Design the sequence.
């Protein structure tokens, strides 16, 4: 699904923040990406998301070398990847419902075809009563769940979540983790970047541990 | 350790059960009591400097329409001048000692009427000739004392053009002191002047349109910068450049239509007011001067139609320019190749 071969990354002329990364994300797999703050978790997720280019090495996404993907084909690839950003990236002028429906709207679906699904998903993540409000009115946890719902709405092949439980209390973090596990069981590969050891201890999954830009894998 | 796949239990204790698309349970169906949609476009309108852009587009369209109207009027006037002049030629007979002027005029008239395409020959009498010379020689002049040539105007039918070379040769051979002026030099000068004015007007029109496009490009880039987060989110949720461009294009088309309609309406109104004013002041020196330059200062229907076309052209150009600008920027964002 995603394969890294000897990938390195540096910003500008600085030192390499990621070095010699070689791993792959298998279909229907679940993994935590962890490491201390500043270890490069977000940079690694951005590489997987193809929002930045590696300084060296090879990245293959869905069987294709990332650097050969035509710009016009990029949206098709992105539609297979669900992303939960650390800062949520909800559009503040659209309602929670519209934010969650956005991926379906940009795919050209008619609202009548997805309205029920969006409402059901919002109910499921506990935002049933908040779907008509604008994101500035939502709490941190609610924003987090709205961002997660947006990433899940079209059941992506792979979900990349950057600190998805960073802004919520432990009980809610556990509930969100259950949600990701549920998604994984329905066939989606899940990568959760987190430094919350308590969260990771709640589910036995592969761990990708970043330390000083190098990756260790614990299957 | 979490073992089972119990779905997230929401804060508000919404009931859940199993089975829909995202492996998520379906909730009991209920009708939402409040509006799900904000009624706002994906690209928020307030982040685009709409009023300023409308104002600039209105000014640009106004200038473009004024230029177009002026060019149209000059073109029509020049056509009229050319048509008036080309319907008439002048024959001049210079007085010489050996020539009897009256018999020379009769002889010249016969020669001229012998050619096809001539409808009428009019001889200017001494009084009319004196009036023509009045601006240079003053009034109360006795022309008998001066060797003033006699003028004959030859009206043409307009269907067939007479053979002016043959007419000139025959007149010079049979009527001593005569010369034919077919006004070709004037027609050529007027044509050159009119073409120059049309070319200058077209140049100004193109410059105004180029300025409009440049303004819209900057406005679109500004709007893109102001909506960078929106564009990035759309990009990451899988929107292609066509979808993102159309979000901006729709908005800019509306802005373009508003601004262009205001500018074109202003220009049309100005021409109507000037037309009414010149009609009302026909007998005054100011009115005569304007009439000399622009005829009746009345814009043809073609001129007004041209302004309406400019309106839609500017609006379309605004939409297209914004789409193209967004398209390029999104393509840059989506280009992962080295």
Sequence:
């Amino acid at each position: 699904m995603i394969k890294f071969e000897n990938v390195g990354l540096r910003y500008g002329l600085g030192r390499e923040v990621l070095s010699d990364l070689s791993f792959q994300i298998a279909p229907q797999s679940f993994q935590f990406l962890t490491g201390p703050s500043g270890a490069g978790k977000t940079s690694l997720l951005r590489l997987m998301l193809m929002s930045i280019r590696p300084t060296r090495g090879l990245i293959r996404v869905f069987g294709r070398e990332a650097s050969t993907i035509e710009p016009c084909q990029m949206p098709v690839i992105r539609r297979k990847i669900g992303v939960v950003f650390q800062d949520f990236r909800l559009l503040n002028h659209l309602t929670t419902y519209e934010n969650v429906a956005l991926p379906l709207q940009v795919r050209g679906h008619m609202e009548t075809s997805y309205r029920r699904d969006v409402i059901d998903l919002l109910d499921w993540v506990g935002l049933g009563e908040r779907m008509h409000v604008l994101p500035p009115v939502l709490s941190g946890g609610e924003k987090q769940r709205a961002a997660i719902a947006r990433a899940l709405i079209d059941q992506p092949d792979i979900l990349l979540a950057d600190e998805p439980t960073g802004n919520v209390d432990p009980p809610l973090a556990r509930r969100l983790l259950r949600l990701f596990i549920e998604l994984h069981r329905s066939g989606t590969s899940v990568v959760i970047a987190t430094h919350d050891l308590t969260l990771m201890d709640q589910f036995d999954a592969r761990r990708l541990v970043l330390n000083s830009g190098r990756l260790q894998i614990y299957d | 350790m979490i073992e089972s796949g119990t779905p997230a239990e929401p804060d508000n204790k919404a009931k859940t059960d199993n089975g829909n698309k995202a492996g998520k349970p379906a909730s009991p169906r209920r009708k939402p009591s409040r509006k799900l949609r904000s009624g706002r476009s994906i690209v928020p309108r307030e982040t685009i400097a709409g009023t300023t852009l409308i104002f600039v587009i209105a000014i640009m369209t106004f200038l473009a329409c004024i230029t177009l109207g002026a060019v149209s009027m000059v073109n029509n006037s020049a056509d009229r001048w050319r048509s008036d002049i080309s319907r008439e030629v002048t024959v001049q007979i210079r007085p010489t000692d050996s020539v009897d002027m009256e018999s020379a005029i009769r002889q010249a008239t016969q020669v001229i009427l012998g050619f096809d395409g001539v409808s009428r020959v009019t001889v200017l009498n001494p009084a009319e000739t004196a009036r023509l010379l009045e601006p240079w020689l003053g009034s109360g002049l006795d022309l008998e004392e001066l060797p003033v040539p006699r003028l004959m105007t030859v009206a043409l039918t307009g269907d067939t053009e007479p053979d002016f070379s043959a007419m000139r040769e025959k007149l010079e051979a049979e009527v001593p002191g005569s010369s034919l002026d077919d006004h070709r030099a004037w027609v050529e000068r007027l044509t050159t002047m009119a073409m120059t004015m049309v070319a200058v007007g077209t140049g100004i029109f193109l410059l105004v349109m180029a300025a409009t496009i440049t303004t819209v490009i900057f406005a679109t880039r500004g709007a893109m910068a102001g909506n960078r987060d929106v564009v990035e989110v759309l990009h990451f949720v899988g929107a292609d450049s066509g979808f993102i461009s159309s979000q901006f294009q729709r908005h800019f088309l509306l802005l373009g239509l508003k601004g262009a309609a205001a500018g074109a309406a202003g220009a049309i109104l100005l021409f109507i007011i000037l037309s009414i004013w010149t009609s009302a002041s026909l007998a005054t020196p100011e009115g005569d001067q304007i009439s000399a330059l622009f005829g009746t200062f009345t814009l043809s229907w073609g001129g007004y139609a041209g302004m309406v076309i400019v309106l839609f052209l500017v609006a379309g150009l605004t939409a297209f320019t914004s789409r193209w600008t967004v398209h390029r920027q999104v393509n840059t964002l989506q280009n992962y190749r080295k």
Q: What stands out?
A: Chain A touches chain B through 73 residues (CB under 8 Å). The first helix of chain A runs from residue 41 to 48. The longest strand of chain A covers residues 16-25.
